[in-house]
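Before we proceed, please read the two lines closing this message. Report back on whether the structure tokens fit the sequence:
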Amino acid sequence: MSETDRIARASRDKAPRGKLARCAFCFALCVSFAASGCQKTYYTVMEQVGVEKREILSSRVKHAKESQREAQKDFRDALEKFQAVTGQHGGELEDRYESLRSAYERSQAQAHEVSERIDAVEDVADALLDEWKGELARYEDASLRERSAERLRQTRGDVQRLLRAMHRAEQSLNPVLHKLQDRVLYLKHNLNAAALAGLDTKVPELERDVAHLVNEMQASIAEADRFMAQEQVN
């Protein structure tokens, strides 16, 4: 469920009947602010309908994980299509090239989505941690303040580990994309058997890069799972 869908549900479930119009207005504002990139106002409106930053963070981590799973599939598919072009099977050469080009374009779009998802996670995590730190001064009870501060330190460490894993995975995308782009461009203007001679020597290099990408994605997904499990415990 998207964040805006969650707002709509919160509006229905949390608001008295006489306030539904106001919540619907908040929902419309929230969609507008999210689209315009005004995240601070977006989080404020979300909280007004009962959706806290921590909940948004969990949702965005989940979506980032799903996006990385899709990226794994798309890049593996692109590798297979390149292998088919350099091989002597799999249909007509033109058809195999078109399949490779389409696979590359899907991979490119998915890589962009992965980056956007990671940026969204980082944005809400920063907002949550900054708010948490600022609220520590409001405690009257020193023991409760210290317990909250310790939990904040633990959460900050969890977030940093998660983002490091996500950014490592993100950094593995561009090298593969650049190599796929080079091969697609080359084949676009050299789509004949003679031009393909020796191109199969490039397959192992691309295989290694895709394997590295998949490993980094798996590590990031595992860290996301660990983070979400920890959040459920707390």
